[in-house]
């Protein structure tokens, strides 16, 4: 089963709930993935990720998916693979709440890693607020946009141990 069964539910203001996700959430996650990312993952790739042990956190309200966070853990390192919030719920704190939930429930993890677009100042600021530090760059990491330009990624990490 995907996700950590010991994760608790977290109630947020505004009737939002954060919980461990499962394959039952994949249709909604896939649709949000398609809306949020230029280079989205296929449904099968998301399914395979969960089946191979990736963890999924979902944020929902009234049965509607507001956002999700997908991560994988290898030994004592955790990598945030994706975090997405539906457009109608942007700037309401869901990304921060899901990130804090992940950090607070990460047992046996010494570092959390992620990549973020150089141009995504809002995300970089959020991660800095959470204690992540910039640790490097990946040149031309993101696929070309409609103009044919690639974008660099900023590497960030949060040391927990």
From TrEMBL:
The keyword Acyltransferase applies. InterPro entries: AcTrfase_RimI/Ard1, Acyl_CoA_acyltransferase, GNAT_dom. The keyword Ligase does not apply. Keywords: Acyltransferase, Transferase. It holds the Pfam family Acetyltransf_1. One of its GO terms (molecular function) is N-acetyltransferase activity. Transmembrane segments: none annotated. Its EC number is 2.3.1.128. SUPFAM superfamilies: Acyl-CoA N-acyltransferases (Nat). This is Ribosomal-protein-alanine N-acetyltransferase. It comes from Mariprofundus aestuarium.
